[in-house]
Each structure stands twice: as structure tokens, then as C-alpha cells.
């Protein structure tokens, strides 16, 4: 308070020697009243600043709460999407597995349907048929078999005269080169087969070799 009084006296200089005692008292009281008014005004300003800070803090808190709620909604939405995607993926996996199992079991049903026709032809062969008739009948069955093989991509190899291929042929013997180049395939002991270009049974072959007489 004394500091404020001195500050006020500097701003409002007073010649105390010319004043009476009562006048001095009145001047001092006035000066203190002025200082008090300045102090009250300062307190009021500080009070307004505090209210503004509090209002700003509340606004900031509400903003953060809104952001938090939005983030929670986004997390919940993403979680639900993930669960649905996981369920769909599991369903696709089960269907694919069932499809593969069915393909393994019934993938050759078309081939089997065709091959039973050959079985029907074989059952019709009778022991009393003549040799010529039987030969013709067997040739018909053989032709029907080849048609079925071709339809399903099964091809019989014809390696005679060709070069030995370890992926298609298996050497079981050697034979003199007669009519074929030495080192090539001269004879087939058992036919080989390919399915859509892939060897499923190697042909058992004999390789031609050059003899001393040759």
C-alpha cells in the first residue's frame, strides 16, 4: 500500500507544508482512495483474463472429446469390416477346399463314362465267333479306345526311329541297328503314354547299336 501511495504522490505532487492538518488528512485519504481504485481496476482485469482462460480450456476439452468419439467410431467400423472380411475369407477357403476334394474324386468321371463303353464292347465278344470276326471286333474296340484317349488328352508315344529322351523313354535292351541309325530307338517293348504333354508312363524301348559286321 505504501508503494502505491508513493506512486500516486509522484503522479499527483502535493505541497504538504501549505496544507492544514485536516487538509493533509483529506489529501492522504484521497490519495489512498485513488490507489485503491487503481488496485480494484487491476483486480477486475485479472478476473476477466481468468474467465477467458477457463472458457478456452473448456472449449479445448470439448474438442478433444469430440475427436476421441470420432476415433472410437472409426475403430469400431474398421473392426467390424475386418471381422466380415475374415468371415468371407474363411468361407472362400472352405468352398475352395470342397471344390478341390470334389475335383480329386470326380475329375475323371467323364473319362470313366467313356471307358465303360469299351467294357460293354468287350462283354459282347463271344467265344463262338470266328477268328476273322473276332479280329475285326477287337480292331473296333482298339479304335474306340484311341478315340477316348484322344478326347481326354491321352496320347500314345511312337518313339521308333527317334532319339532317346530320358523324360519319355526307359532303355530295357540294345538291339542291332537294322534300318535305323545307331543310338536311336529301334524297338518298343511297352507303349508309353502322355497326358496333355506330360509323361504318365515311360515307354520301354530298345536302343539300336552298331555291330562289328556293320
Automatic annotation (TrEMBL):
GO biological process, one term: protein import into mitochondrial matrix
Keyword presence, Cell inner membrane: no
Signal peptide: none
GO molecular function, one term: unfolded protein binding
Any one GO cellular component localisation term in the record: PAM complex, Tim23 associated import motor
Keyword vocabulary terms for this entry: Chaperone
Stated name of the protein: GrpE protein homolog 2, mitochondrial-like
Species for this entry: Cyprinus carpio
Source organism phylogeny: Eukaryota, Metazoa, Chordata, Craniata, Vertebrata
Amino acid at each position: 500500500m505504501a508503494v502505491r501511495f508513493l506512486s500516486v504522490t509522484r503522479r499527483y505532487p502535493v505541497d504538504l507544508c501549505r496544507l492544514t492538518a485536516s487538509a493533509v488528512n483529506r489529501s492522504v485519504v484521497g490519495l489512498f482512495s485513488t490507489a485503491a481504485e487503481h488496485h480494484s481496476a487491476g483486480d477486475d482485469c485479472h478476473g476477466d483474463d481468468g474467465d477467458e482462460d477457463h472458457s478456452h480450456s473448456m472449449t479445448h476439452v470439448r474438442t478433444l472429446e469430440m475427436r476421441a468419439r470420432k476415433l472410437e467410431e472409426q475403430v469400431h467400423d474398421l473392426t467390424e469390416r475386418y471381422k466380415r472380411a475374415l468371415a468371407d475369407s474363411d468361407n472362400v477357403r472352405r468352398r475352395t477346399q470342397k471344390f478341390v476334394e470334389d475335383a480329386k474324386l470326380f475329375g475323371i468321371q467323364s473319362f470313366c463314362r467313356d471307358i465303360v463303353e469299351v467294357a460293354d464292347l468287350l462283354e459282347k465278344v463271344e467265344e463262338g465267333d470266328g477268328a476273322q470276326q473276332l479280329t475285326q471286333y477287337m480292331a473296333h474296340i482298339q479304335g474306340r479306345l484311341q478315340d477316348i484317349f484322344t478326347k481326354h488328352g491321352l496320347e500314345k508315344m511312337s518313339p521308333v526311329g527317334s532319339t532317346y529322351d530320358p523324360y519319355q523313354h526307359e532303355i530295357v535292351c540294345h538291339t542291332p541297328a537294322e534300318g535305323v541309325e545307331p543310338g536311336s530307338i529301334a524297338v518298343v517293348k511297352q507303349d508309353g503314354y502322355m497326358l496333355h504333354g506330360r509323361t504318365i508312363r515311360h515307354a520301354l524301348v530298345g536302343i539300336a547299336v552298331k555291330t562289328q559286321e556293320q
